[in-house]
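> @MW can you paste both from yesterday?
MW: sure, first one:
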Amino acid sequence: MNIVIENNPSSRRLSDLGVISWPKWSCQPGKYALVFEERETCYLVKGKVKVYPKGSSEFVEFGAGDLVTIPKGLSCTWDVSLFIDKHYKFDPPTSP
């Protein structure tokens, strides 16, 4: 699945990445089918989620305070147990 989770990164690391200037996204608890067309890096301010890759019963769980990198091309279901509030950025698209 190759989701990379960095638990509780330092405020310096977040500042160096410019996380505070990234757009924000939020969602209520529930299940969401998502496809990541580009690699996403996100920082969860609030919430908790289990991510299930399409066709798998295995999951990765992360939540508030985690810096997460989600690979390009991942089709998955987000099972959100606590309201999500996150900063995010996508890598620029690559030319074919």
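MW: second:
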Amino acid sequence: MGRKRLITDSYPVVKRREGPAGHSKGELAPELGEEPQPLSVDEAELELLRQFDLAWQYGPCTGITRLQRWHRAEQMGLEPPPEVRQVLQTHPGDPRFQCSLWHLYPL
């Protein structure tokens, strides 16, 4: 009796080549002479708000504005970041700032 056949026996064995030292697969090489652009103030503030949306410790963010979520978290003693409230108060009518990442998705 021989060994039991496996499904992987029907596929050829492929040896992977090692890349150059220090090079990992999927890593993009930086363009020569190109510096990464710093974020504008609005982009940095929106990134802060996106991180707040993704932070589960402040409760769910669907169906309410970011400011409502911030107030709810504060009332529950969850200590939401004060920077988030400051950003929200500086852009009171702008839906990019007031609505969470998920506001376009139906509940």
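> thanks! The chain has a mean pLDDT of 84.
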